Structure formats: structure tokens, C-alpha cells
Amino acid sequence: MQKRIRFVQGNEACVEGALYAGVSFYAGYPITPSTEIAELLSERLPARGGKFIQMEDEIASMCAIVGASLTGRKVMTATSGPGFSLKQEAIGYACMAEIPCVIVNVQRGGPSTGNPTHVGQGDVNQARWGTHGDHNIIALTASNHQDVFAVTVDAFNLAETYRTPVILLFDEVIGHMRERLVLPEPGELELVERLHTSVPKDVDYHPYLPREDGRLPMSDFGGEHRYNVTGLYHDMWGFPTSSPKIVNGLLRHLMDKIDNRVHEITRYKEHYMDGAEYVLVAYGASARSAIHLARSRRRRGEPIGVIELQTLWPFPAHLVREKCRAAKAVLVVEMNMGQVLHQVRAAVAEPERVFLVNRFDGMLITPTNIQQIIRVIQGRGM
Known about the structure:
Elements: E1 4-9, H1 10-21, E2 25-28, H2 35-47, E3 51-54, H3 58-70, E4 75-79, H4 81-86, H5 88-97, E5 101-107, H6 124-129, E6 138-140, H7 145-162, E7 165-171, H8 172-176, E8 178-183, H9 244-259, H10 262-265, E9 268-271, E10 278-282, H11 284-298, E11 304-309, E12 311-313, H12 317-323, E13 329-334, H13 339-347, E14 354-358, H14 367-379
């Protein structure tokens, strides 16, 4: 069967992935460099019987997808740094109420308005810690359009599996560059659908009582069951509580349902890792430069390899520790002031062998930037 091949922007690859996964509701507000996602879905979704709505701001956009998800829809919104900041309270609500949703953040320079039209990767820590309180989150990223498509499908699957917000943390270069995308056939990729409760209408329904496998069956708002949803600490019926025992169990559940499944959530790629003495840990557009350097230097016999992270949160410390165990030096390549660097140093046995290669001036980090730091490290005898 002939494959469907497109030449698209990264933002369009994200749209294609969302449509493939079954998104049926989108609410958003235009913001560079994510606006193409909203523009494309404003045409594509209604044509498929879905709903698109432009809200008055990013706060309302996040709240709208939370409400739509409760009615049984697969939902998504997209934004960039300033809008992502505004969404944090409602993201925290979705974490507490365990509401599946996908949030795309196509990163740009920051803080504040920063540089709307240039690249940045400064929102990694915000994705994990942006909302207050003890919670957990899943954040995925990608360095090429085929993987943008794939991790977008993954995001919807993970949101439905763990009843949680999932963040797609792309960047301006990935969002706006164009490259080849091969569209899989329907059914070629596995899709996770909403797990609905089998409890009959007239039987007591516990919306926050996990099954043995940890999943929480849902009942669509407006359907057969009436139940309470709140951002307060709540019991298995969804009603507010201040019982220390119940609160303790709730918060442990919110953390453990993700922390206990890091191996299942972790996505990554290896490039030229056989015998690598210098390991580059990179993600998003930064990984493209790291892979280019490793490929070119391997041809000259230099043992450079790349671990490309696609799961940023929960951070795959086990993976980084294992893959970097034999390295003379580990270089974290990112376009910020060292946000993943701290995670890598905490993961490895010898943090003094972990170095930062970075740019944060709105320009794409280059293979030359990386090579210069490798030469400095080699000059120190590493």
C-alpha cells in the first residue's frame, strides 16, 4: 500500500498526530510560535465533526478543554511561554481532578514576552513545577516531524491511561521548520480510548476509586452518573475532605501513578552510542545539532554518541545513569541556562563529569558550539 507522504511544518505534524489520536475538541488563543496549530484545527476539526473554539485568553482555553474532557472528549490546546504561564492554575486543577488533556507548548525566548519569533527551551522546569503543590506531570518532546507526530499520539494515549494532563514541549525551530512526514494508516498505531465505568446507572459510582491496575474508569458528564469534581482534596466520591488519611492517600496516588511507571512512560532514542566515550544528552531542536556532530565526528573516528530524550518528565534518571555509566564526559545540550543539566547531574554517579553546552540568545545551538566545548574538555585530559 502506498504511503501518504506530506511536506509539513512541525506544528502541522502535531495537528496530524492529534487528529490521528482522535482529538475532537480544541480551545485556544493565538500566540507565536504555536498559532499554526490553532489555524489548522479551526478548519480540520469541524470538517470531521469536532469542535474548535477560540477563547478570550489562555486561562479560558485551558478551562474549556478541562470541561470538554469531562464530557468524554479527547481534548487539546496549544500555546507558547506567556500563555503557558497563564494556564498553570487550570493545569493544577486537571492534575488534582485527574482529567485527561493535552497541552502543547511551542517554546520561544523568555521570560515575559521575551523573543516571540526565535527559539528557546526555557520552559522545561515550568512544565514540571509550574503549578503549585505536590503533583506529577508527563512532558514529551521530539526533534523531527515524524517523532512529533508519534509523541503527539503518545500524549493522548498517556493522558487517557493515567487520567492526567500531558504536555508536549516543542520549540520554535521544530514548530516552524518543514520536512517529510509519512502518515501511518488508520489502525497502524495503537490508540488508547477513554476507559468508561461499567457501574450501572442506579448503582453507587466512585469516580476516584482506582481499579487493581491503577486506572480510574470515568463516567461522562451529562451521562448516567452524577458526581462531584473539585480542585480541593477529595474522597473517592469526589467530595471535599480534610481527613489526613484520605489526603495522604490521594496525594500519594497522584504521584505514584506516574512515578511507579517511569519505565513505561520513558521514550528516547540512541544515536552512535556503541563505544561512546563522550555522550551528548539532548532534546528537541538541540538534538538535531548533537546528532549532526556525532555523525560527522564518528566518520573521523571520534567516539561521540547521543542520547535523545523524548520524555522529559518524569525525568528518566535510570536511563541516563545507565547510558552514561562508561562515558569519560557527559555534555547536556540545551537552549537555556541548564534546566536538564541539573537532572542529569543528579542521575549520574560522577556529576563532576557532566558539562553544559548551551545557548539562550534566540539562535539555534550549532554543532560547532558543541564541538568547541568537547575540545575544551578533551584539553583537560578527559
